Each structure stands twice: as C-alpha cells, then as structure tokens.
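User: Here's a structure from my thesis project, written as structure tokens. My advisor, Dr. K., wants to see whether a designed sequence matches the one we expressed. Can you design one independently, without my sequence as a hint?
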C-alpha cells in the first residue's frame, strides 16, 4: 500500500471542456487527413505545406514554427514534426521523398481559440513490414496504459509507472529523456509527464487540467542522438526504427476525455483490455 501525501496544487488556468474541444478536434482532423493522404512519393516538405494550409484555413496558430527550446539548434521553422524510420522524435521537415515501407511519425500541435492541443500518429507508407506494424501497435498500447491512469487525484508517477510497466511487459526498454506534458495556453506547460515513475510520486492531477501522454519505442536499446544536419531530429543511435504516439487529455474525476481522438483510429489497446 502506497500512502500519498497531500500536495499543494499549483495555480493554473483551466479551460472548460467546451473551450478545450476545438483545438483537439482540429489536431485530430489534420492528422487523420494526413494519415489517409500521405503516401509513397510525398516529400516531407509537402506534408508540412499541407498542414500549414489547413492551419491557415482554420485560423489556427502553429505551436512549432517559432519554437526554440534548449535541445533545438534553432527555431523549428515548420508546423509539423515528420520523423522517418530511425528519426524517432522531433523530425524537422526536409527535402526527402517517402519510399515504400517507410515508417513515419507526424507530431502536430496548434492553438485554436486560445487553447492548445498536441498529438502524434505513426504509420507506414506502402506495403508495411509486420514488425513495423507491431511496433506501432505496441507504442499505442503503452500510451493507452498511461491514459488508463489519468484522473483527478492521480499523479504523474502513476502514469509513468504504467507506461514503463507496459513497455517492459512488451519487451522494450524506455527512454526517459522526453515524455508527455501539460498543455494549455502554450504547448509545453507543467507538469512533465514522464514515461517512467513510481506510483504516488510527482504532481497530482486536477479536474479540468490538460495533459498529454507521449511514449516512443524502438525495438533495440533506446539511446538517441541528434541529427547533425538539422540539429533537431532525434535518431536512434543504432539505426533501428521507432514509433511515437501521443494524445491530449482533459482530466476528469473519472476516465479522461481524449480531445485528440481520431474517428478512424482502431479501438484502444491498453493494459486493461
């Protein structure tokens, strides 16, 4: 039995569900459109241009284009992350044409009507390798295991522990450098939502809060290195492929509301069935 100490809850601006929904629905619609449309022969720059077109038409605001964190070599300069094969995270669009069998992850965050949503989907263009499809399914399973823990009164340690356990159950190690996070008026807000943890540890969630759960997996050891040509793309250090999954969640007293749920997604695969 783990006894939780009461924690002082940081003051934060919380949206109503009606305020938070538009950003989530827009992010979901863009990723669904791109997953249906992007195919062999698409250039990564064309994917960015299509996402940019949809942002403009919706009157939304990109969270990425001017983003320059400490781990990026410069401002990102584009509106979507396009991570291909061994480029597992933060893939900066480049002049690269997708080939048959490429595994691509699209990570996308925007602000709509003052609130942000953030999500990622991985898929294969052309005939897929069975091991790539399994990697994507496993990454989604790990994400849903974390989502199962999201509710008011739970902690980020509860989420991280579930993510870590499901990854280990499926035979993966877990990289703890990056993870999920709070969202709200901006893309990255407190708390950090790790992909590992101890039950009962870390900040406690409150109803109305927006967070993401964001695992990424590779079938071999999980070390990452930054691509020296763009200063952004996080690549596996042994060339193995990776998959990435993320949803934005609205915290309630019970099950969370998945704001970025895509209607064309398969049924959730989680540790709870």
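Assistant: Designed independently from the structure alone:
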């Amino acid at each position: 039995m783990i006894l939780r100490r009461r924690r002082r809850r940081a003051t934060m601006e919380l949206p109503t569900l009606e305020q938070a929904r538009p950003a989530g629905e827009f992010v979901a619609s863009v990723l669904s459109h791109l997953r249906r449309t992007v195919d062999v022969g698409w250039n990564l720059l064309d994917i960015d241009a299509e996402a940019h077109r949809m942002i403009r038409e919706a009157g939304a605001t990109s969270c990425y284009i001017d983003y320059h964190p400490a781990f990026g070599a410069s401002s990102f300069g584009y509106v979507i992350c396009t991570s291909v094969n061994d480029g597992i995270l933060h893939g900066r669009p480049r002049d690269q044409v997708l080939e048959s069998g490429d595994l691509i992850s699209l990570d996308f965050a925007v602000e709509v009507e003052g609130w942000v949503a953030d999500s990622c989907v991985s898929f294969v263009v052309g005939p897929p390798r069975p091991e790539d499809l399994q990697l994507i399914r496993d990454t989604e399973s790990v994400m849903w295991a974390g989502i199962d823990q999201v509710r008011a009164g739970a902690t980020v340690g509860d989420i991280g522990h579930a993510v870590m356990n499901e990854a280990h159950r499926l035979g993966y190690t877990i990289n703890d450098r990056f993870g999920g996070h709070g969202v709200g008026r901006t893309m990255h807000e407190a708390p950090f939502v790790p992909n590992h943890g101890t039950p009962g540890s870390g900040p406690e969630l409150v109803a109305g809060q927006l967070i993401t759960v964001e695992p990424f997996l590779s079938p071999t050891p999980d070390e990452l290195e930054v691509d020296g040509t763009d200063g952004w793309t996080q690549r596996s250090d042994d060339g193995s492929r990776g998959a990435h999954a993320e949803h934005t969640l609205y915290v309630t007293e019970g099950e969370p509301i998945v704001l970025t749920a895509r209607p064309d997604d398969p049924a959730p695969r989680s540790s709870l069935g």
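When you compare it with your expressed construct, this may help: Residues 19 and 115 are 7 Å apart (CA to CA).
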